[in-house]
């Protein structure tokens, strides 16, 4: 069963605009990660935020985490055509010792219109 | 890009035949994972390994087996392929398990006819 659920399922915006995607999860986590997947390719890690962090930045990416609401958001500022991809959140609901794998949501498909 | 290679990249096989997918890494990472990706389901964990000869089942392990005889190789075997195993399979590696980022291979598209 999916731990994380992204919202919206699909998002289309104009180049230069900001894109916001949300992720909700069900159980306590140690960390939450965001990945990008371009069409026909493997997933690429974007950012990891730990449960004791509230916000993290990486270039044009900003991730927030609200453990009380069991939710996270990914903001991409000043979007570019190359940002067109599917974005997944992933959580580690495992034992913390590396056992089990990340649990992924179904993803948000982002389209940047030129 | 992390040194992770999946082979083959594409395969078409018949129902009932055995199939083995290979994941090879050059990063010396301890943890290796096999996921499948299907429309409407996202990525689901099949099996994972936390060391040589140390493997365990994931969420959707029925019909699959794995082996890891060397740090760098993690094999996924479908003993008798079924149409429900048509999917895109991804291998992933990580150095310290769930507390660190995972690196994914390019995927293997498997079609069972």
Can I get a quick summary?
The complex is a heterodimer of chains A (114) and B (113). In chain A, 0% of the residues lie in helices and 54% in strands.
Biggest sheet architecture of chain B: 7 strands, mixed
Topology order of chain B in helix (H) and strand (E) letters:
EEEEEEEEEEE
Average pLDDT for all residues of chain B: 95
Largest interface: A-B, 28 and 30 residues
Tally of strands of chain B:
11
Unreliable stretches of chain A (pLDDT < 50, length at least 5) are none
Alpha-beta content class of chain B? mainly beta
Strand content of chain B: over 45%
Write a structural description.
The complex is a heterodimer of chains A (114) and B (113). Chain A is mainly beta and 114 residues long. In chain A, 0% of the residues lie in helices and 54% in strands. In chain A, strands 2, 4, 5, 9, 10 and 11 form a 6-stranded mixed β-sheet that branches. The model of chain A has no long low-confidence stretch (mean pLDDT 91). Chain B has 113 residues and is mainly β. Chain B has strands at 4-7, 10-13, 19-25, 31-38, 42-51, 54-57, 64-70, 73-78, 87-94, 103-104, 108-112. Chain B starts with a strand and ends with a strand. In chain B, 39% of the residues are buried.
